[in-house]
Amino acid sequence: MNDQFETLARRPDIDVATERYQKMQEDVRGRISAELGPVEWKVRRPLSRSGCAEFPDVSEAESRTLGLWYFTSNIPDDKWERAVKIISEINAAYGFGPPRHMENSPGRHEVISVDSLGASYTLGTSVHTTLMLHTGCHLEAKAHPANAGKKTP
């Protein structure tokens, strides 16, 4: 095995990682709606897949962009820090670092955070509010050593 494959083999496969990140997004949407809403989240752009430039020697590596979740209003300035606190609490439980403000001006806010596996999430608000998550690179389920001998999709 090469070093790149071994690195990816220590991570969950892409299907397991995707399921976990989707649960995290669900938790974020639920808390924001319950504590700052109610809001009606919608999804645009279903999940998309791409290769992994960081692991060029592993053809079975994949990263994903999960669906873009949004609602058609903004989070008011006076509630923004509460939204950041909510997302910080949830995402810390999933191994993400503290969010960094990419934009923080009246009526426009955006934070981003990453985890140790290269995933990143963005929560932003202006006219609309969006939540997006990109996974890091993971092995396809069929290539992951943990699934050896198992039937995978």
UniProtKB/TrEMBL annotation:
Predominantly, its location class is: membrane
Its membrane topology, per UniProt? Lipid-anchor
The answer, when asked if Membrane is one of the entry's keywords, is: yes
Q: Which domain of life is it from?
A: Bacteria
Q: Which GO terms describe its cellular component?
A: plasma membrane
Q: Where does it live in the cell? A: Cell membrane
Q: What is this protein called?
A: Lipoprotein
